[in-house]
Structure formats: C-alpha cells, structure tokens
Amino acid sequence: MQFKTPITGPHIRLRQMTEDDIADKVRWYNDPEIKQSLVLDESFELEKSKQWFRGVRDLPNRIDLIIESVEGRSIGLIGLVNIDSKNRTAEIVLAIGEKDYWGKGVMLEAESLLIHWAFTQLNLEKIWGQTRPENIASLVTMKKLGFKIEGTLRQEKIINGQRIDIMHLGLLREEFKQAHTTNE
After folding, report:
1. What's the pLDDT tens digit per position in 44-103?
2. Pick from 14, 109, 122, 164: most CB atoms within 10 A?
3. What is the pLDDT of residues 89-147, one digit of tens each?
C-alpha cells in the first residue's frame, strides 16, 4: 500500500520505506541485541531482503514505514501488516534499530502516530500486535496506548532452538489513548 505523505510528530516522522532503507533493516534485524525483542528467528541478507521488498511494497494489505528523527536520521521501522479491510483490522510491527534512541519515547510516539493515522485514515477498528513476554518496553508502551492482553500463545515459536511464548495484544478504536499528535 502506498503511503502518501510523512506523518510528523513532535520528535520523529514516519515515511514510506524505500529500497534504500533495506540495508538498515538488515543491519538492525541481524543485531543480536535487537533480535532478542523480535518474534522471528531468521538471518537477513541484503539481496534477498531487497527482492522481498520489491515483492511486497505495493501490496494492499501492508504499509512499511521508516521512523526518522527530525534531523532525517533513520532510527527504526514500523508498519501495518495483515491489513484486513473487510474486518477493519491490522497487525502493528515495530523495531527501533538505533540503540541510542532506546528509552527515549520513540516507540510510544511512533506507535501513537501510526495508530491514530490507521484509525482515522484507514478506518480500522482494531489493531493487534505480538511480543515476547520478556519485552517489557513493548508491553509497557502498548499498555500506555490502551492495548489489552488477549492471550499468551504458549510455546508458539522456536527461536534460537528454544520454544518461546508469544503474547497477543489488541487495541480497539475506542480504547486508544493517543500519546502524541501530528504537527500537521
């Protein structure tokens, strides 16, 4: 799905991901420290990731965005996948790749901006996400925005050779607690 204009908040902006951003995504997703927070267990290669991106960038059921500082530095990615226009739901995904931005509210601002946009522009009624139980930053951020834990998928995935639980959280439009507004 094409994303027309950046969403600008007080400290960051969200813009459409381009093929030039794939090198950052590969670097971030292959970082062992970042990988500990992800719900996937694969190594990423630049050329394969570029091919993947070419195949998904225009799909109507996903939006892939880059989180940028106001100075224009790429610091992470966020998106909506599994967008279901019939049921008006989508899954939110996010990774803050630049560690010097961890603990500075970027995750909260990025999720708040994208969720507000999704509810108002895509007319979604529910946004859901998944996280590892030990990813406290993600859980705290999602709860601040109004997400509710809908369940734990016990031993759902094998990551690093171990079975892990995955928590499933959901946010209904009327439960959304917007943390940041756009500057537009």
Report:
1. 999 999 999 999 998 999 999 999 999 999 999 999 999 999 999 999 999 999 999 999
2. 14
3. 999 999 999 999 999 999 999 999 999 999 999 999 999 999 999 999 999 999 999 99
C-alpha to C-alpha distance for 75 and 10, rounded to whole angstroms: 15
| Contact yes or no for 62/56 (Cβ under 8 A) | yes
